[in-house]
Design a protein that fits this description.
Layout (H helix, E strand, L loop, with lengths): L26 H11 L9 H6 L5 H13 L3 E7 L5 E8 L10 H4 L9
Antiparallel strand pairs: 1-2
Length: about 120
Amino acid sequence: MSTFSIETNRNHALIPTQHLNDTNLSLKAKGLLTQLLTHPTEWGGTLAGLTKLSNDTEYSVKKALAELENEGYIYRHRYRKTNGQFAKVNYTLYLHPTNLADNPIYHSTHQPEYNR
């Protein structure tokens, strides 16, 4: 009987490939999503950190993030301080395009406050 095994190490990631075949995404957006999916669930990276992973500018990375958001691969949640000032942004990645209209967080009238 034959058996198959996969040899893995720390430099190996198994990711879905649906986004790689999505003709609505640019190569830059596909590459960025692939890069993001190789990190642990609670990675906590920053925009500056993403920019350092490539030779792209911050503007270029933001544009790719916006493209992924428009296609439903990323949900951007903005946090504000109690006084209404902008505090931070959290991104949620999806393995497949998601209709944000079905996301209860997207419709929430409650904006979580961020106190720092």
